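Listing S7. Sequence submitted for prediction.
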Amino acid sequence: MQQRLLCVRHGAGPTDDRVTTWCALTGVTADIRRPFRGDSCGEITADLAGLVVFGGLYDADSEDTNTFLREEYRIIDAALKADLPFLGICQGAQMMARALGAWAGARGPEHEFGYYEVSPTPDGTTFLPEPMHFTQAHWHTFDVPEGATHLATSALYPNQAFRYGNAVAVQFHPEVTIEGFRRWQVGNSAYGQPGCQDPETQERLMLAHDRAQGAWFYGLMDQMFGS
């Protein structure tokens, strides 16, 4: 049976990130849904290898105004109850935390926008064997839910990753390529905010760390969604 990976996206831009590339390389169908455009997330069926909820510009607790988030929370709750492999990235991580009963929201004023070192916690060395630089683009965060394992931390935002059963939440963006990050740089309002890196620093760190970030992420995808 052809497997599919349900990919819940919050933007209309290109889908040239590493999740889609991994699907193309492994023969898994990237089943892209955009609830903000009215798409249903469907149901959990036998052909579903897992769920990825991407980052975005919507607050995790804004379902009263962004009502499409209720559809996303429906499939998130179903995935967690089924112990389906589920990767939440940035906004997706915050939504996972909130679905598990933890707080998620703005804690600033620091912005992580650029490439920042993320370190494993004592319980996270299998997940992240050593400190690495990852793409970041956020100023919201989450608390680690009760019953979850805290996996990674950074200097500005201590809650960078957690695991809950077969679900993994990452505040950072290992799926983003150099081309994708350069699109994010254009006109970004984070520049000048506390914690935000300047474009020259971003360029230097991006070129130094993108390859290792990609290799780590493809390994995570294999572990979570590989047959």
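Caption to Listing S7: primary sequence and predicted structure tokens for the chain studied. Residues 88 and 96 are 6 Å apart (CA to CA). The first strand starts at residue 4 and ends at 8.
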